[in-house]
Amino acid sequence: METTTHPYWPRNLSLPGYVSNVRPGWQCAGAVAAAGAGLLALGWALNRNERSPVRRVAAGWFLVCAGIHGVLEGYFSVRHRELPADTGLLGEVWKEYAKADSRYVTSDDFTVAMETVTAWAWGPLSFLTFVSFLSRHRSRFVLQLIVSLGQLYGDVLYFATEARAGWTHSDPHPLYFWVYFVVLNGVWLVVPSALIIDAWNHLCAAQRDHDRPHKKGH
Amino acid sequence: METTTHPYWPRNLSLPGYVSNVRPGWQCAGAVAAAGAGLLALGWALNRNERSPVRRVAAGWFLVCAGIHGVLEGYFSVRHRELPADTGLLGEVWKEYAKADSRYVTSDDFTVAMETVTAWAWGPLSFLTFVSFLSRHRSRFVLQLIVSLGQLYGDVLYFATEARAGWTHSDPHPLYFWVYFVVLNGVWLVVPSALIIDAWNHLCAAQRDHDRPHKKGH
Predict the structure, then answer these.
(1) pTM of the shown model
(2) How far apart are CA A194 and CA A206, in angstroms?
């Protein structure tokens, strides 16, 4: 029988070199929430030419995603092996989140692969999407579709692999399982789905326009 | 030490209930190749209004994908647990392919999750993409982008998870590792990447058109 000296599930998980977090959990969660809210506000402020408040929030969403994918998930993608002993702020954020999914402190193959693509592809592309909406660039809805589909597919596989593993990696406490694992990740099912439908509508309208035989210059 | 009575790697893999294939490997590979070629020819024949041969092949590609995702990967998604003892044609096709990646005979969590999404989402959407090109529907390039990005991301994760597992699941024989595993799956990196760029160009051109301020009716 393995001695349990860490807060992760399953309780018999072996985690050599684990060091307890210095910060309380609410500070880790609060730091991420504050950074996210700050990016959303910055995105809103920078996008003052956009009249529709929904579009303005949608553009801000991509700045939030750029920050989360690029910084938080970027950190995970390069430092996942050292996380159990990490007591820096970003390391402790991941060790707090890992109570809801211990695959983050064991360098689980799928989790590392998916997070690496998220950090290095969807992160920069989220930032490009934000910039493309600021400048009304013609690529804006194509980028919105690419990023949102990437996020949705990654998230579906994230839930599906954990379902197949029998939901064994989360502390069953409602804060960890329901709030952190289900609700937080559920946001990346709901919002990208809505943005895929939105991009679909805009791109189909543009293509219908483009296909008209009697249009000037075509 | 496990006794090895199957052809899969790693050689010490335990596979209770395994039954040898009745058909030789070339019949399994030949059946899939013939079905794929038949679908490509059918797609070409049905799309006689398309003047560009490249576009005509591209549309046929989506009919091939609909068949592979819907039938072959659909079979895997519902029958993966029974594969080791399966001696039907589709079962033997998978048991032959599993020499190149034994995750297919062990119901590996990521493989089952990814293949299930591929079968039930990218399969029907591939067929819709084919139909949308036949009818020049305004959704055709949006569908091409969605299917191709889904295939590319799934395939990247497929290679990345196996890389993280140390390439341990393939028979090192060149036919299995290089031809089946690398080249065959590599096709779904190369073709979808080209089709993503193609869809990007078409959709951006349509959006640029749509955004023009002086256009009639807008």
Answers:
(1) 0.94
(2) 19
